């Protein structure tokens, strides 16, 4: 791997590390409704989706479409579905034990969740959305090979803006949760990641200045300083220049002792941390500790609790995998679990 490639991938992991910390702050609401929260921290999940587009396109450049479709889906199933299936029994045990209001356990719900429809699981909508994008992405890649990444990006932006314009109708027809998991509203993000993947090595301060300019323009629209009628449409598009700005801005962090490696580790393990904080957050909400935490004004402490739950889940999962590997090696041959 070249030096440039090393910086590139480290930057992606660093941004993912910052983004998973942003997810924790979203769920703890430690920053309240401040502009920093709304315009930066609350963009963590869309930034993840842009990076999903980047990493997915990098994967497909090393593989052939459609010959490697099976490998693509098997790999994403191991990375996304298997950890999710491991988390589901814990969630069901919590729900069955604490009996939270509004949660209706049933065989139908279990089947839906096993297939990735995370109904009634707090913060679980991201899994349902990303699974849809996993299905769509290979065909976006194939389309980009035929017509160019620029046209695919234009198509993605058009679909996202159309979804944004129709959001009230989508909610009215299908409900709030189904709007959250309506993956076409993120097609611009995925297509931008696809487009960006071939330009990573050229991202420098000139790109950062251009991205910052575009981001400031989006913010001015949202603050109704210019073109106030476009505020609804500027909101989803601001994630695109923000991701570019972050990819450039985080590079110096790689050389900061302790901080850089910690953020990279968080980025590499971000999905496991997300699942762990999901279970932790649901446990607090189920047991009604959540409103009491907010009443006592210790939201930053709750952020730490979510981080501990996420990291603890990763460490526990690693320990279980090591034990299972040792048992399989020393005792009997068992199927190798997904990592």
Structural features:
0% strand, 339 residues, mainly alpha
What do these coordinates show?
The protein is an all-alpha fold and 339 residues long. The chain is built from 17 helices and no strands. It has helices at residues 3-28, 35-39, 44-61, 69-98, 107-114, 125-147, 149-165, 167-174, 176-180, 187-196, 205-222, 231-237, 239-249, 259-268, 270-286, 289-295, 299-330.
Fold blueprint:
Layout: H1 3-28, H2 35-39, H3 44-61, H4 69-98, H5 107-114, H6 125-147, H7 149-165, H8 167-174, H9 176-180, H10 187-196, H11 205-222, H12 231-237, H13 239-249, H14 259-268, H15 270-286, H16 289-295, H17 299-330
Total number of beta strands? 0
Q: N-to-C SSE series?
A: HHHHHHHHHHHHHHHHH
Gyration radius, in Å: 20 Å
Major β-sheet, in short?
Answer: none
Oligomer: single chain
- Quickly count the helices: 17
Distance between the termini: 23 Å
- In which range does the helix fraction lie? over 70%
What value does the average pLDDT take?
A: 90
* Uncertain runs: 1-8
Structural class: mainly alpha
Question: How large a portion of the residues is in β-strands, by DSSP E?
Answer: under 5%
* Rough outline: globular
Provide a concise account of the structure shown.
The protein has helices at about 5-30, 35-40, 45-60, 70-100, 105-115, 125-145, 150-165, 165-175, 175-180, 185-195, 205-220, 230-235, 240-250, 260-270, 270-285, 290-295, 300-330. It is an all-alpha fold and about 350 residues long.
């Amino acid at each position: 791997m070249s030096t440039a490639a090393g910086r590139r991938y480290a930057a992606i992991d660093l941004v993912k590390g910052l983004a998973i910390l942003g997810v924790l702050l979203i769920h703890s609401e430690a920053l309240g409704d401040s502009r920093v929260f709304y315009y930066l921290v609350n963009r963590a999940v869309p930034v993840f989706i842009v990076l999903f587009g980047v990493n997915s396109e990098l994967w497909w450049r090393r593989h052939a479409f459609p010959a490697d479709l099976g490998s693509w889906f098997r790999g994403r199933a191991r990375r996304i579905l298997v950890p999710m299936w491991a988390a589901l029994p814990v969630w069901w045990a919590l729900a069955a034990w604490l009996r939270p209001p509004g949660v209706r356990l049933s065989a139908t719900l279990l089947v839906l969740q096993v297939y990735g429809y995370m109904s009634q699981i707090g913060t679980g909508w991201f899994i349902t959305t990303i699974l849809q994008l996993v299905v769509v992405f290979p065909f976006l890649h194939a389309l980009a090979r035929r017509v160019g990444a620029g046209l695919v990006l234009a198509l993605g932006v058009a679909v996202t803006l159309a979804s944004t314009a129709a959001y009230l109708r989508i909610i009215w027809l299908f409900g709030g949760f189904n709007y959250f998991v309506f993956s076409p509203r993120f097609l611009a993000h995925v297509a931008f990641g696809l487009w960006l993947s071939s330009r990573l090595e050229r991202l420098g301060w000139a790109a950062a200045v251009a991205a910052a300019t575009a981001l400031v323009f989006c913010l001015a629209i949202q603050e109704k300083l210019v073109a106030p009628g476009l505020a609804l449409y500027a909101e989803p598009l601001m994630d695109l220049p923000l991701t570019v700005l972050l990819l450039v801005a985080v590079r110096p962090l790689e050389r900061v002792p302790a901080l850089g490696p910690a953020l990279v580790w968080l980025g590499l393990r971000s999905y496991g941390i997300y699942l762990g904080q999901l279970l932790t957050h649901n446990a607090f909400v189920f047991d009604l500790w959540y409103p009491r935490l907010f009443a006592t004004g210790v939201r930053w402490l709750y952020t730490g609790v979510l981080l501990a739950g996420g990291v603890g889940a990763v460490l526990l999962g690693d320990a279980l995998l090591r034990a299972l590997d040792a048992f399989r090696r020393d005792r009997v041959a068992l199927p190798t679990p997904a990592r």
